[in-house]
Amino acid sequence: MAIIGRSKKLVGSLILAIFACLLYGNTLKNGFVWDDTMQLPTESSTAPSVKEIFFERSWMVLNTDVATRQLKESGVPRPEEVSTYRPLLLVSFLLDHKLGKGDPFPYHASNLLLFIFLLIALFHLACELAIPYKPALFSLLFWASHPLLNESVAWVSGRHDTMMFLFLSLGLIAALRIKHNSKSRSFFYIAAATIFYGCALLSKEP
Fold first, then answer.
1. Which long-range contacts (CB under 8 A, 24 or more apart) does 166-171 make?
2. Is the confidence at residue 10, as pLDDT, over 70?
3. How far is CA 96 from CA 54, 80, 105, 170, 196, in A?
4. What is the CA 190 to chain-centroid distance, rounded?
5. What distance in Å separates the CA atoms of residue 65 and residue 46, rounded to the nearest whole number?
6. Nearest to 93 by CA among 155, 136, 139
7. In the chain, count of helices (H) and strands (E)?
8. Which of 10, 31, 50, 96 is deepest in the core (most CB within 10 A)?
9. pLDDT-derived band at 185, boundaries 50, 70, 90
C-alpha cells in the first residue's frame, strides 16, 4: 500500500482544520452553561496554584464556593465527595482564565483548537496505519460533523473528552513508530508514547 507523502498529509490536515472551523466557528460566540459555572474560575475567585490543582482531588478546586453552593441547592448533601481527577483539564481552564479574565472567548477558542488538533492527529494516525488517503480523510470529515461531538466542542466543560482522545491518538502514533526506527530513536518514541498516555489519564480519569 502506497505511503502518503508529506504534501498530501499537509493538504489533508488543512482541509480538516478548515472544515472544523466552518462547523464550529460559531461556538466562539457562546457563553458559559451548565457545569461551567461550577468548574470554571470567576473574576472574584482566588486562582489556585498548579500544585493545588494536581494534589486537590475535587474537580471543584477552581471555584469551590460556587460549586458547593450549587450542588447543595441541587440536593447533593456532601459536595466534597463529588470528585474527579482531571488536573490537566483544570490547568487548561486556568490558562484560559488568565487570558480572558472571565471572558468565555478564550475557553471556546481553546476547545476549537484542541478539536482541530485531534482531527489532524487522527488523520496522521490513519496514515501510520496505512489507511488510504481518501477513505481516511472522508471518514474523518464525516466523523467531525457527527452531532454527538457537539458537546465536546461547544460546551467548555466538555473539553475533557477531546483532550483525552487527542493525547491517546498522539500516544498511538508514537507507539506505532517504535518498530520503524533505530534503537536509539525507538527509546524516544517509547518515552513519547508513555508521556502522552499519562497526559490522557490526567485529562480524564479512566
1. 166/114, 166/117, 166/118, 166/121, 167/196, 167/197, 167/199, 167/200, 167/203, 168/196, 168/197, 168/200, 169/118, 169/121, 169/122, 169/125, 170/121, 170/196, 171/195, 171/196, 171/197, 171/200
2. yes
3. 17, 25, 9, 23, 22
4. 22
5. 10
6. 155
7. 10, 0
8. 96
9. confident
Cell of 40: 470554571
As a whole number of angstroms, the distance between CA 184 and CA 107 comes to 39
Using DSSP's 3-state secondary structure scheme, residue 204 falls into coil
Q: How far apart are CA 36 and CA 30, in angstroms?
A: 12
Cell of residue 128, nine digits? 501510520
And the C-alpha cell for 15? 482541509
CA 2 from centre of chain = 31
The grid cell for 112 is 476549537
Burial of 55 (0-12, 13-18, 19+ CB in 10 A): exposed
Give 188-198 pLDDT, tens digit per residue. Answer: 999 999 999 99
Higher per-residue pLDDT: 47 or 57: 47
Cell of 123: 488523520
Residue 64: pLDDT over 60: no
In this prediction, residues 143-150 reach a mean pLDDT of 93
